[in-house]
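Friendly challenge for the regulars: who can give me the structure tokens for this chain first? No prize, just bragging rights.
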Amino acid sequence: MNPIRLARRASRRAHKALGGVAVQIERNSNKSEYITCTVGYSKSFEQGEEGFFSYRTRAFLIDVEDYAINGEALEPQVGDIILENINGKLTKFEVDHDSAEPEHIHPDAERRVYRVNTKEMY
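First reply, four minutes later:
Bragging rights claimed.
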């Protein structure tokens, strides 16, 4: 095995161990088991009838093998819900895309991880 690939995998495992969060994936009322992933934040703005308003977006880094419900491997799709407990409150993030990016990409060369783009549901 290539030493660079081994280092990337070790880095991913360490990142999940140190900064991972437990989430569930929901599609059509079916939920996954809890899985560990890592997250990033960004803030977006959108034009509405009454001017600009902001909403919170979040990118989840989820291992491809973990994106599954009832043992069935899935690819992220618009409308999937990612459930995360934040400070004791269940928070829902809907898989979404924007004009610049699709709902998910593979940020790694080996395509072992999904970066899933979401928008918080209020």
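The first helix runs from residue 3 to 19. The two ends are 45 Å apart (CA to CA). Your move, everyone else.
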